[in-house]
Amino acid sequence: MTEKKNFIEHAKDGKILSHKCINCGYLSLATVYFCKKCGKRGFDDFVLDGQGKVGTYTIMTVPPTGFEKYTPYAWVIINLDNSDLRISGFLPNIQKSGDLPIGAAVKVVGFDDRGIVLKKL
Prior knowledge:
By secondary structure, the protein is mainly beta. It has one domain. Helix content is 8%, strand content 46%. It contains 1 helix and 8 strands; from the N terminus they run H-E-E-E-E-E-E-E-E. The strands form 2 sheets. Strands 6-5-4-7-8 form a 5-stranded antiparallel beta sheet, covered by helices on one side. A 3-stranded antiparallel beta sheet has the order 2-1-3, with helices on one face. Strand 7 and strand 8 form a beta hairpin.
């Protein structure tokens, strides 16, 4: 299975596949080929629970082509718990900024044509 497909399968299960450098232990998303910290190649898979806190977001009321049926929604950057990693994802049914305070707890709940799908906890 390719890295991308493996990453998607984990996201469908609410997890985030990451890589831990075998040289220095630095944690990266599974989509990297070289360690950002030491520059070496060689990783062990490391699966993170897909929970985190909202770092920032934008509410989409005028969506890009193909996403009209999903509006309104938020495109969210989350800081994953127990790591320094951040990911972005789709959070449905967010209509205004008061619906999603910065720091709110969210979780990965799937992956589909929108990308990573999140749920507010």
